[in-house]
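Practice problem: Putative 4-hydroxy-4-methyl-2-oxoglutarate aldolase
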Amino acid sequence: MSVGNRVFLKRDLPESNVIEGFKNLPAANVADTMSRLCALSSEIKLIGSPAAPTMVGVALTVKVRPGDNLMLHKALNMAQEGDVIIVSNEGDRSQSLMGEIMVTYAKSTKKVAGIVLDGPIRDFDQISKMDFYIYGTGSTPGGPFKEGPGEINVPISIGNVPVMPGDIILGDTDGVIVIPKKYAKEILEASIEYAKKDAAKLEAVINGTANRNWVDESLKAKNTDIIDGCFEY
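Answer key — structure tokens:
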């Protein structure tokens, strides 16, 4: 086995009902139940124009050499309907990883739930208008190499967050979060309850009954000086 140049054909997958359960939840609510440490860097932004409120699917992880997409092509061949192809690119921004043809194949032929790239795309004008969840760091006309090596269905790191093959990837217009497969069921349960409380907070703001006393209570607990006067200089 050649570490750094290998493809694992199988993943351990979460239960389908758990995956479905996340489709009605905002990424922000789910992230809050995970101590807010699961979101990819804001450098990785939504590029497409999807109609669906969220992107939810199982991680098909891809590790490519900077600026190279040979393993990404292999991942496209392997992808199942509803997968999220998520690609580590070692932070490289010099070469695009995908263009219109590849993205159209992923969307229309393979019917993946979305694509998350740690790098740029090209054919930005066409891709940005697609009804499809694709995230990336920007665009460049410089195309990728197709030399390898790379890996598929191995642990990766993207946007400062680790991802295991089979983790659940949830994205919306805010960005992308990673839900560890091992804890997905309990995270789903906590997220549903959190979303209910969040909706109640919003309703209180709308009808004027929001209680903001917690702010001063928190500052008092932190020994903050509240001075009834002007700053003198």
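Discussion: The helical segments are 16-21, 27-33, 70-78, 100-109, 124-128, 184-207, 213-221. Students who identified this feature from the tokens alone can consider the problem solved.
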